[in-house]
Design brief:
Blueprint (H helix, E strand, L loop, with lengths): L1 H24 L18 H18 L7 H41 L4 H7 L10 H4 L2 H29 L6
Length: 171
């Protein structure tokens, strides 16, 4: 049974990776026109479903695992730290991406329009130029870490509830 759960985790993880990398491929080349709208927004639907399936599979995978309160707390803090570090890294990569866009505009038109660069990189998911910032390896691993964080938070809440009821001190 554990092997089936592990296989399901791998399949869901690979499917989510495929969706993330497909979204990354939807980013136009720096300096090129982008058209209207961002079709990658539609990828959030299957990605959201896969994320929920991933959380469910993690919970099923670790259902019978007995972890002390201190280990659960440590795992939650480590995962939260990883997610925060990943967010900081994404902000750093955004600044590098803006510089890449500036160089591309300088090469193509002989000048850099910082107002335009700021506008296309500040629109969040609505800007197709930001797909490579939202759909990349770092955000994929942040999603995996967040799904694990939710799983361990669930186990922590379960542990606290069991402790209050006096049913288990080891869960």
């Amino acid at each position: 049974m554990k092997m089936k759960r592990f296989a399901a985790l791998i399949i869901i993880g690979l499917a989510a990776l495929g969706v993330v990398l497909f979204g990354n491929m939807m980013t136009p080349r720096p300096g090129s026109s982008s058209g209207n709208g961002n079709p990658a927004i539609l990828l959030l639907i299957p990605l959201g479903i896969l994320f929920l399936m991933l959380v469910y599979q993690w919970i099923r995978m670790f259902k019978d695992l007995k972890m002390p309160f201190s280990w659960l707390s440590l795992m939650i803090l480590a995962l939260a730290g990883y997610i925060l570090a990943g967010y900081g890294y994404q902000l750093h990569r955004l600044e590098i991406y803006r510089e890449i866009l500036a160089e591309a505009f300088q090469l193509r038109w002989g000048q850099t329009d910082w107002d335009y660069i700021e506008s296309i990189t500040s629109g969040g998911l609505l800007s197709i130029h930001m797909n490579n910032q939202f759909f990349n390896w770092n955000t994929y691993f942040m999603m995996i870490a967040f799904s694990l964080l939710l799983c361990f938070l669930y186990k922590l809440i379960q542990h606290i509830m069991n402790r209050r009821q006096g049913t288990s001190a080891d869960n």
